[in-house]
Amino acid sequence: MLEDKEQKRTSLDNLGEFRLIEHLTENFNLNHSSSKVGIGDDAAVLDYTDKKTVLTTDMLVEGVHFDLSYMPLKHLGYKAVMVNLSDVYAMNAVATQITISIAVSNRFPLEALEELYSGIALACKLYNVDLVGGDTTSSTKGMLISVTALGQAQDHKIAYRSGAKPNDLLVVSGDLGGAYLGLQVLEREKEVFKVNPNNQPDLSPYTYIVERQLKPEARKDVVELLEKLEVQPTSMIDISDGLSSEILHLSKSSKVGCNLFEDKIPLDPTVISACEEFKMDSTMVALSGGEDYELLFTIDQNDFEKIKGNPHFTVIGHMTEEKEGNHLITRANTKIPISAQGWNSFKGE
Amino acid sequence: MLEDKEQKRTSLDNLGEFRLIEHLTENFNLNHSSSKVGIGDDAAVLDYTDKKTVLTTDMLVEGVHFDLSYMPLKHLGYKAVMVNLSDVYAMNAVATQITISIAVSNRFPLEALEELYSGIALACKLYNVDLVGGDTTSSTKGMLISVTALGQAQDHKIAYRSGAKPNDLLVVSGDLGGAYLGLQVLEREKEVFKVNPNNQPDLSPYTYIVERQLKPEARKDVVELLEKLEVQPTSMIDISDGLSSEILHLSKSSKVGCNLFEDKIPLDPTVISACEEFKMDSTMVALSGGEDYELLFTIDQNDFEKIKGNPHFTVIGHMTEEKEGNHLITRANTKIPISAQGWNSFKGE
């Protein structure tokens, strides 16, 4: 529905994968001193002589993680990078390099991949990361993107999932649930479009949540802000699968429990109104929605004054002894166990 | 045809990706001092404080790069690692870590992924590399494996594609063409099997070439041998797409030309007899076949004495001035230009 049907189409068949990767990456520059050699040899060469390296990888599959009927390819390229950078920032590290591998069927013309790479290029520019490698190959069906991201940090700055202690405060950046509701809006409009292809949807009331879904931003700024505020998170994770699932990861890795306060969960007004429209419970959406790519972290209580009143951060709970378990304290002051209801690609939607 | 139809089948649907990756990787250990933290956090943490890091990534797609009707899953896992380690060794570096990401449709039971990971585990053990990350997700069709490999080397040891000089000798490890002919044998048997599923093929005359296709070995030993012989390759590349294509990569990157001598190309006797059987020209098979994962490198003429007579190495030509171009000198002493006829996944077979 957002697709331009008049696009120029150059078949990939006669281009070959060497020329394809050359063509797609010719305008990418290396900006980090740690990026010694990028694309063009058997491997990239990197120099991490004075810091630790963090490494993460994620795959996005058409029909599972994205739907090209409403996901513009440029946004998809951007998002594929964000998903991975988010994992680097969740280590409290600075992202420095990425590799991108793509498998595509022949139904995609070269111009489609150029669109995709323009989103990747924008992400590299805005987040200051170097593209240093990758692979392009054909698939028998659809598109698949595999990204690996590397980052650097001083050893003592790295925030693991395992460092939370009882009484640490649980903090989240930004607000939650928007990406999931944006997806609901897009899915609804897709169904409308199937019935009436001439219908032009008015998405303007949903701008914020649709952008959260189509063009998420990884929280590079949070890592920088924590450094500036001199706050070292005791543990950290990014929210890709929903708040409840990420809390359980932190608790399990740190061998602690957690009390999460329902009335503290940060929600954008658009999220609240969309929840009313879709007859969904906003707390459930925040707990299980996923794809917000906010950072969830714990801090020592002594650091509370440093983040207090900061508009980027909300204290949503605190950690407890492991034996106390993980609970949501509702607005009605009842205590219900938190269960993992995050998104699972093997179960589908 | 090599599939056991009586396998136990545990559906992936109800396992979830967190438990899946935990389950599949629980027996993997970290052996390198540079592997500080592996799977289980947002990112792996690596320590490369005294050496340069090399990074490479490759994708294998079912129906494009492999056919599960004759490729056992354990072999596939092993090969997926080899393909990437080969790129690390082609930098004259020591492979240290890998990440594995897999997209699979629900037609694969858990036991299939366990088989795949048993091959990955074997490769990690034999080649001394640590599995430090990855992703598992569902696909709408088939299986796709994306591997990233990291390695380390001292700066002055790294061999790029770009360092060859005129008069350098062109050297190849092992022998060529076997993997391609192994594929021909397997494809032929697959056709026979389609006609008569009870036919049990006798592959014993083809053991060597079938193994070259199904279970290639990356040439870790060559990197170690060159170190021991005190030979620093002036340029190096691995032969994944066929000799001609790799020679052209070296020549182009190094801004040199090349004379390749047909009568020097190392061929196993099984390759020669299979070529007769399939009515193929053995030189063409070596030039264009691909997937042998041997190393192709150049050395200074002064290093010739160090490798002379070594059974692992064959001098197959020498580099020239760029303006002289790239030529094959045939047995009949005619000079024909080398063209890239390596394997191109966008063109199919």
UniProtKB/TrEMBL annotation, chains A, B:
Keyword presence, Transport: no
EC identifiers of the protein: 2.7.4.16
Residue positions binding substrate: H65, E291, W343
Residue positions binding Mg(2+) 4: D42, T56, D87
Binding annotation for Mg(2+) 5: D241
Residue stretches in coiled coil: none
Binding site for Mg(2+) 2: D58, D87
Entry GO MF terms: thiamine-phosphate kinase activity
Pathway: Cofactor biosynthesis; thiamine diphosphate biosynthesis; thiamine diphosphate from thiamine phosphate: step 1/1
Binding site for Mg(2+) 1: T57, D58, D135
Catalytic reaction annotation: thiamine phosphate + ATP = thiamine diphosphate + ADP
Pfam families: AIRS (PF00586)
Note: Reaction mechanism of ThiL seems to utilize a direct, inline transfer of the gamma-phosphate of ATP to TMP rather than a phosphorylated enzyme intermediate.
NCBIfam families xrefs: thiL (TIGR01379)
Family indicated by similarity: Belongs to the thiamine-monophosphate kinase family.
HAMAP family: TMP_kinase
Known function: Catalyzes the ATP-dependent phosphorylation of thiamine-monophosphate (TMP) to form thiamine-pyrophosphate (TPP), the active form of vitamin B1.
The protein's name: Thiamine-monophosphate kinase
Organism: Euzebyella saccharophila
